[in-house]
Amino acid sequence: AYDDADGDGFGDEGTAVAVCTATVDQVVEGGDCDDDDWDVYPGAAELCDGQQNDCDTAWTETDEDGLVSFWAADAAGTDVTAAFTGYYELSNGEYAVCEGSYAVELGAYRVTTSVEALHAGTVQLTKGGSEEILGAIDSTIQLSGLAFVGGDALQGGAIFANGSDLQVSDCVFTDNSAQTYGGAILSALGSSLAVSNSVFEGSTAGYGGAAIYSTGALSVSDTSFAQNDGGFGSAILQNEASTVTIDRCDFSDNTASTGGSAIAVSGGTIQINDSTFQDNVSTGWGGAISAGSSAR
Known about the structure:
Blueprint: E1 2-3, E2 26-27, E3 68-71, E4 78-79, E5 86-89, E6 93-97, E7 100-109, E8 112-117, E9 123-127, E10 134-137, E11 140-144, E12 146-149, E13 152-153, E14 159-162, E15 165-169, E16 172-174, E17 177-178, E18 185-188, E19 192-196, E20 199-201, E21 204-208, E22 212-214, E23 218-221, E24 224-226, E25 229-232, E26 236-238, E27 242-247, E28 250-252, E29 255-259, E30 263-273, E31 276-278, E32 281-282, E33 289-295
């Protein structure tokens, strides 16, 4: 028998002992190449986790390309690749996405979850349904290392968040569009949004907030906005009395037909630190920044 420290049904060859009856912590199958990880054992399904899962010595990390895996709390990982296309409802837990392009319409309703690329810059999410790429209602979501490309919707072309807390890091938003507000991201109706180390480029919105439209608390750091185009606040439009904090961001070549080609704030408080504005153009007012009479 073999000791099975991780409870995956396979034991460590180095613990082999001759017994008449295996104890509760022992198994009769050996060959576990990592007995501290219940996702690793002979014959295990390959997961997007940067390691060999099935104890096959011929494994390379490229074997994980195109895989999507999910971990619920205190549970082994599962392969959800086949379902991760078209409409897919996110669950409570953590998702890891390996290198590839995925046409999806992700839904999140009253969940706490994360969706992360195993390696930043290798995962592209595109529109896979009739709505935005990700729609969140009353949820808490962390997104990391993903590229959102070509999203298109009435509002919130790539991401629509309603009553949700959204954290976005190391992501790229390219060529997303909305007919009204939030070409890349719309964060509204009690939502909060924190963005860091990300890029927004080539997004459009018919009314405003081509990159980001927000009505709740908004913080953006170490992020660049370039060549976004909208009616009002082409990079960022904050449309209600909330707090906006901008740190170490770059705004360049954004255009607006109404005002605030980089940032437009109609109310609340805005603080901008160590940021640059270059070649932003508005045919209305506020070539770079437009602050309404109720903003400060």
